[in-house]
Amino acid sequence: MDHFDTDMLSGKLKLQQALDLLLSAYTNLTQNEQPLWLFPSVMLWGEPGLGKSQGVRQMALRLEEQTGKQVVITDVRLILFNPVDLRGIPTANADKTLAVWLKPKIFDMDASLGVINILFLDELSAAPPSVQAAAYQITLDRCIGEHELPDNCIVIAAGNRITDRSVAYRMPKALANRLCHFDIAVDFSTWKDWAYCHGVDSRILGFLTYKPDLLMCFDVAAKGNAFATPRSWEMASNILRYSCTDEKLALPLIAGCVGEGAAIEFGNWCEVYASLPSLEDIFAGKQAEIPRGVDTKYALISSLAAYAAEHLDDEVGLEHSLEYAVRLPPDFTAALLLDYRRLGDAMQRFLMKSPSFLSWTATRGALIDV
Q1: 59, 120 Cβ separation under 8 angstroms
Q2: 85: phi > 0 → left, psi -120 to 50 → alpha, else beta; which?
Q3: Which of 97, 113, 250, 309 has the fewest CB atoms found within 10 Å of its own CB?
Q4: Domain locations in the chain?
């Protein structure tokens, strides 16, 4: 008899695991023509900068693909709201005998069959208790006062925990009992999948592949305002890609995003890039040396994968890169091939016809679980 995975019940879930479960539930409801309110409202708990809101947006795109419906997200930052903002502004009716409430924009949703709405209540735990109380009806009754959510609306909330010592109020038990809770863990592998698809700077990818523990350095006792999170590393990547490509000049800016300690380690790491062989030469099929240092090899494979992500239509160059890669120690070749496989369906199709890939995996495929 098969048993369910108790590890998924005993601790935190990776963000992608939680979103995959939700995607399956929402897709099943939609395909079976059942109202989305049959699934309870959701609460995603996690440390600041974990990427919860970004993950919800990615899930929305996948839900569009699987259901063929347009998915519209209404993003509400509850920390900016007052209770009256959720209820609406009171005004007099036509004969001035009763008060009526003007409908807030968040309830102005398309209820047609071709649409799925997602009401995303971000920073719910940071909202003052009075605003959390106003969220009671939204999460359970899917309404507040006379304003109702349509049947095609999903309600997802997100926030930080009290133990994170970010801005957070303890959630009342009455509200907590209205939600399906997911405690989200930091997961470097999931973040790396996202990073390759979104053009994160190869220097940051290489550094965090070498030191994945620095992806998230949130310490409630630490001094200073800047600390490393998936969100702040993305900010650092944007600085390197668009504002200041010289990492030495950019280091103070990067420290302002990820903190001084992580920035110093990143700056030291960047020095190994000076000794990397030319990626252009490797993709051109020219003879290139294999670096000796472990840190340099990590830098090389992350740089190759990032370069490949921008040259997926150059199959000749990709094959040259694989001819070079199979000369690396097997563990590093496997790491590069795993990163190549993160680059999407086009790369997967290329690998399935690549002589270098097929030859290497014929003898060492167990290293990448082919």
Answers
A1: no
A2: alpha
A3: 97
A4: 7-185, 189-368
Strands 147-148 and 70-77: unpaired
- Would you mind telling me the total number of residues written for the chain in this entry? 370
pLDDT in tens, 12-35: 788 888 999 999 999 999 999 999
Six token digits for residue 111 = 């209820």
Beta carbons within 8 Å of 15's beta carbon, 6+ residues apart? 44, 46, 50, 51, 52, 55, 184, 185, 187, 190
Domain at 7-185, CATH class: alpha beta
Average pLDDT across the chain, whole number: 84
> Which of the two residues, 155 and 1, has the higher pLDDT score?
155
The torsion angles phi and psi of 119, rounded to 5 degrees, stand at -95, 110
**DSSP secondary-structure letter at 239?**
I
Closest by CA position to 210, among listed 288, 105, 321, 300: 300
Residue 25, CA distances (Å) to 9, 19, 111, 112, 252 in order: 17, 10, 20, 20, 45
> Taking the CA atoms of the chain, what radius of gyration do you get in angstroms?
24
Contacts 24+ apart (CB under 8 A), 16-24: 16/55, 16/187, 16/190, 16/193, 18/44, 18/182, 18/184, 19/55, 19/56, 19/58, 19/59, 22/59, 22/156, 23/59, 23/62, 23/63, 23/66
Find the range with the poorest average confidence among 48-57, 87-96, 219-228: 87-96
According to the model, what pLDDT value does residue 62 have? Answer: 94
Pairing state of beta strands 99-101 and 41-45? unpaired
**What ranges make up the beta strands (E) of 20-98?**
41-45, 70-77, 90-92
Q: What is the pLDDT of residues 174-225, one digit of tens each?
A: 777 888 999 888 778 878 887 887 888 888 988 898 888 899 887 656 677 8
Our measurement of the distance from residue 89's CA atom to the centroid of its chain's CA atoms, rounded to an integer in Å, reads: 36
Count of Cβ atoms closer than 10 Å to residue 351 Cβ: 19
Amino acid at 268: N
Cβ 51 vs Cβ 191: under 8 Å: yes
